[in-house]
Design goal:
Strand 8 and strand 9 form a beta hairpin. The chain has 2 domains: about 130 residues, 3-Layer(aba) Sandwich (Rossmann fold); about 160 residues, Dihydrodipicolinate Reductase, domain 2. The protein is globular, with a radius of gyration of 20 Å. It is α/β, with parallel strands linked by helices and about 350 residues long. The chain is about 35% helix and about 25% strand.
């Protein structure tokens, strides 16, 4: 650890696969420390800790906690500065509330909560207690998007015309899995389509200086037997003739790229845009220019470093991923879900 500043001490709530990637990045950074692993199942927390041991790093404490009261008590420990939450979507709210009530900074996996109505009281709580809160949309902090930002802000492709993206993969239907269970806020839109929407918003912000509200949104979906969307396609139409189309799915394959169209050129993130390391700029009459910008560790380090930077600057939200973005994306997803008839028990 650096002698210049103390380590930022983290608790992880929800020790699963995504949390494993977060911990790998955390352990690869200086001035970061894993202090506590919290799970509903202590045996799973123990297995997670064993799988993610790192040489030269202190062993985290393990604790079982279920429900907001137990979480708040555990997170009130003095050796915790920040909390990373990676539980199923429907359980995010209670963990976020517990951490905020304990006065701890929060980085919560996307979506922050399944709907706008659940988000508003959490944001009000964070603001009332002056505690940092950020949705973990890690794509916005990847090195390659800093290059795309430069291209867009420089106007190299000319006036923006449209955005297209896909995020699709095929998995077997399992009514009890977090992807398909409505009680866990399953569905392709909330789980992966949020990347399509959030990065559409980001592109418009870089190209226009702000993201306008769509004039209209059109969605269609194929629903799983449980009633959640296993595939959803949407078109969003913005002022100035700008349009965005995307598809997200659990029942098929796609190129999983992101394409940004301008009057004079094209920007492409050709593969797995949510974790891209390559971007390509093609201008009319010129050969394509491709940049490769790898991760420092596994890509999750960007959001960790952003939380650290914000906390050390005394900020309660991130300028790169502000709470207004979380609210805006949730509002769009609420509207799209309403169009295709997806409802959750807690709506």
């Amino acid at each position: 650890m650096s002698e210049a500043q103390p380590a930022l001490r983290w608790a992880v709530v929800g020790p699963g696969n995504i949390a494993g990637r977060f911990v790998q990045a955390l352990q690869g950074l200086p001035d970061q420390e894993l202090s506590l692993i919290l799970g509903r199942d202590l045996a799973r927390a123990q297995s997670f800790a064993s799988a993610h041991r790192a040489a030269g790093r202190p062993e985290p404490r393990l604790q079982q906690a279920a429900g907001e009261a137990q979480l708040r008590a555990a997170l009130s420990a003095p050796d915790i500065d920040a909390v990373y939450i990676a539980t199923p979507h429907a359980q995010h709210g209670e963990a976020v509330a517990a951490a905020l009530q304990a006065g701890k900074a929060v980085l919560c996996e996307k979506p922050l909560v399944p709907g706008l109505a659940q988000a508003r009281p959490l944001l009000a709580l964070a603001q009332a207690r002056q505690v940092f809160l950020m949705e973990a949309l890690w794509t916005r902090f990847l090195p390659v998007y800093a290059q795309v930002q430069q291209w867009l802000q420089a106007g190299l492709i000319g006036p923006l015309r449209g955005v297209q993206s896909s995020f699709c993969f095929s998995i077997p239907f399992d009514a009890q899995s977090r992807c398909f269970d409505p009680a866990l806020a399953g569905g392709a839109l909330l789980d992966i389509g949020i990347y399509n929407l959030s990065m559409t918003r980001w592109v418009l912000q870089q190209a226009l200086g702000t993201c306008p509200e769509p004039l209209r949104m059109e969605a269609q979906a194929v629903l799983a037997p449980t009633g959640v969307d296993q595939r959803l396609a949407a078109s969003l139409h913005f002022p100035g003739g700008i349009s965005s189309q995307f598809v997200c799915a659990f029942d098929g394959m796609a190129d999983n790229g992101l394409r940004i169209f301008g009057e004079r050129g094209l920007i492409e993130l050709p593969q797995q845009f949510w974790e891209a390391t390559e971007a390509r700029l093609t201008l009319a009459g010129q050969a394509p220019q491709t940049v490769h910008l790898p991760f420092q560790i596994n890509g999750f380090e960007g959001e960790i470093l952003e939380v650290s930077r914000c906390l050390r600057a005394g900020l309660t939200e991130s300028p790169q991923m502000p709470l207004s973005e979380t609210l805006a994306s949730l509002a769009w997803m609420d509207a799209l879900r309403a169009q295709v008839g997806v409802r959750y028990p807690f709506d």
